[in-house]
Amino acid sequence: MAPENTLAGIRLAARMGFRAVEFDVMLSADASPFLIHDETLERTTNGHGAVCRTGDRELSALDAGAGERVPSLSEAALLCRQLGLRANVEIKPAQGLARQTAEVVVRQAQTLWGGDSLPPLLSSFSLEALEICRDLAPELPRGVLFETLPGDWPAVVRQLGAVSVHCDATQLSPEQAAAVRQQGLLLCCYTVNEAVQAERLLAWGVNSLFTDRLDLFAADAAT
């Protein structure tokens, strides 16, 4: 219904009654944080090459679909605050750039959401990035991303001081869901695009769902 990781998608979610959005952030060649999922430009823009080798000016001029630009983190943060949306900022560092990406995102998040009653949730598959988040901004909540929950997930979560566990919806069992909730953690599942699957996960105690199907879940977003 809107290109991914764009301001149009954020606006659409707000209009349809959603209370939170998730977007991916990685660095440009100028070490500026932009909203984009892949390390390369081809799938989601009309550009070519690696995001981390593309400068701010060139990246900002690309078409991310339907005439939308690739937005900066500051643009997305401002819009979320204006619309009253909670933001889940997924840190997606290019290979070898986990530390730098986390440092930039954390510093900007502290400034962009400073004093906000709805601080962003910083999440990542990169444990190194989350360690940086913990050390530089302990006041900002953190979420650990897994595909399949490893056997030592409780220790990982404790070490990072995370408040939430995020995992592949198709890899979660009801027993694992119960174990996460028993630890007092929030449990979030991606990517849920079917109502039946959503109902099953919510019955297991899952707190939040990530979806591409805004049209499927819009009626339930307010609840």
TrEMBL record:
Chain ranges of the GP-PDE domain: 1-221
Cited InterPro entries: GP_PDE_dom, PLC-like_Pdiesterase_TIM-brl
The keyword Hydrolase is annotated on this UniProt entry: yes
Keyword Hydrolase: yes
Pfam family, one: GDPD
Gene Ontology molecular-function annotations: glycerophosphodiester phosphodiesterase activity
Top-level taxon of origin: Bacteria
E.C. numbers: 3.1.4.46
Alphabetical list of SUPFAM superfamilies matching this protein: PLC-like phosphodiesterases
Keywords for this protein: Hydrolase
NCBIfam families in the record: PRK09454.1
Descriptive protein name: Glycerophosphodiester phosphodiesterase
The organism of origin for this protein: Azonexus hydrophilus
Originating gene: ugpQ
